[in-house]
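Researcher: I'm preparing a figure for a lab meeting and need a structural model of a single chain. I don't have an experimental structure, so a prediction will have to do for now. The sequence is pasted below. Please return the structure as tokens so I can convert it later.
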Amino acid sequence: MNQETKTHYRKAFNSPYLSSADIVGPTDLVIQCVRLEKDKSKKSKDSFNTAYFAQKELRPGEPLKPMILNAGNSKTMSGLCKSAFIDDWQNVAGTVFVDPNVRFGRDTVEGLRLRHREPVEQASDEQIAIIDDYRESGHIKPETEEWLTNHDLTYKSAHRLIESLKAAH
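Model: Understood. Here is the structure written out token by token.
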């Protein structure tokens, strides 16, 4: 069993926000907008910079939750957008990853971090044609089809999908 299929113990606490328990590796996402909102977990009366993503799912069948931007991640967004105003933080490509060495009081905990997304090579025309052939022949499962509809197809993800389709058929 790999990390992507295992269940983190913190999943049982069902946070309304993205957490380190949700991210199993660096994840490329597009921040659609950021809003200043009251805490939805009802643990405090504070307001937070809350990032909403263009993608609807983190993985097939798993809804993507909004992410609270702490001071460090807000500073990163300010730098990425070249603006200190959250109203300007729209449609920003970034990578969310888990930093295992975040200081929280006296403790060291896991925390989400945001960084600039490195340019990603998009799927080639040849890869798209191969995937389209599998689509037309009905060999793509509905959940995979839904994932393809909601995500940009990169060269790497197209390669993995084609290899898995070849192995299955």
